[in-house]
Amino acid sequence: MKLFVTGLPGVGKTTLVLKVAKEMQGLGLKIGGFTTQEVREKGKRVGFKIKAIDTEEEGILAWVGEGYPRVGKYVVNLEDLNRVGVSAIRRAISEADLIIIDEIGAMEYKSKDFAMIINEVLKKDKPLLATVHRRYTERFRGMGRLYVLTTENREKIKDEVVKELKTLFSFKD
Ligand SMILES: Nc1ncnc2c1ncn2[C@@H]1O[C@H](COP(=O)(O)OP(=O)(O)OP(=O)(O)O)[C@@H](O)[C@H]1O
Question: Where does the record place the AAA+ ATPase domain (predicted)?
Fold first, then answer.
């Protein structure tokens, strides 16, 4: 089962996957993959952190400034993306019950290793919950269910995702 979640920036995609991960961990399942979260300084967004779900290892995914590769005003830190993010996916492919990837977007695709491991995950049968930037959803058409998150439906969709996964893993509600 592959579940994809998209929606406008800040709508709650990361919050959703964190809640789902916690609920599924509470049921004894092994969750792998990574999440990304914005970093704010004095109320302004200055970058993004990346964190492995299993080891809680952290890194900097991108930061405002000069440099390469860049996405908008951010410079992508390929070293941390690969060290934290790609490695977490690699571990999840072999060890986890559910892979969470938050998110699949322009910054992440700057890494060739990331692009390659995404293709690997898509070929596997292993359950996946991924947030996808709206510009990239077309790539995953027909591969699984796509949820479009809004502030109005985000709680309902979180419950639905948990329900789908519980059914998959044969837990009763
Ligand atoms: N279900 C929710 N209830 C209340 N607040 C929420 C909920 N979901 C998200 N938020 C709040 O909205 C803000 C943005 O959430 P989050 O980082 O999850 O969004 P996102 O879609 O992942 O953002 P981005 O596109 O930047 O990755 C956070 O401050 C978060 O606490």
Answer: 2-152
